[in-house]
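Task card 7
Instruction: Convert sequence to structure tokens.
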Amino acid sequence: MTPHIEARRGDYADTVLLPGDPQRAEWMARTFLEAPRCVNSRRGALGFTGLFRGQPISIQATGIGVSSFLIYAHELLDYYGARTLIRTGTCGSLSAKAKLRSLVISQSVRPESAQSGQVFGLYGTAAGPDPTLLARALAKAAELGIEHHAGLTLCSDIFHHPDGRTRFAEAQAAGALAVDMETSALYRIARHFGVSALSICTVVDNIETGELTDYSERQRLFTDMTRLALEIAGEGR
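Output:
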């Protein structure tokens, strides 16, 4: 056990899907995995392990933001031996191309600023997704007919920011598709530990237009994202 995870060694699979929301983690596990069992409930950060087409897969909630994400990612990698991390999160669209309910696959990510969280100093240079996972995701999304976009994304530590949407102007000019609060941490800690990682997010709001999905529909919104993550995880075995 760790300070934040009560599972025993061996309770997590080599591949772990990482939603932020514990309710989403439970929905994903109960909906898509065979014989899912809860391996962590400490602090309400639910974790599950089950089978997808006969292969073990885990799903662990990480909470919101870099600080919370890094606690769970680090402990999964360092104590439980995870080798592949796939973020299954939400994001806000910064581009007209990335419409509500579509998927954004992060091909590269930049922090909102060099001072935005210790992670950017702790883990050195910028990092990106595992090329094999990325290629699988793009091919499988096209095969399944899932609306998706791949490109630059932004990672921010702050949700309610005093500068509002104007703070995204530079990133939008650089072509950023969307913003989330964890992807930089995912790619950097994965590089630090020498493991594979990919970030796939569902667009739940549009920063420019103010459009947003209703929270009541958000679990079923994640069907395509979960299917895609599980399909590419299974291909690596």
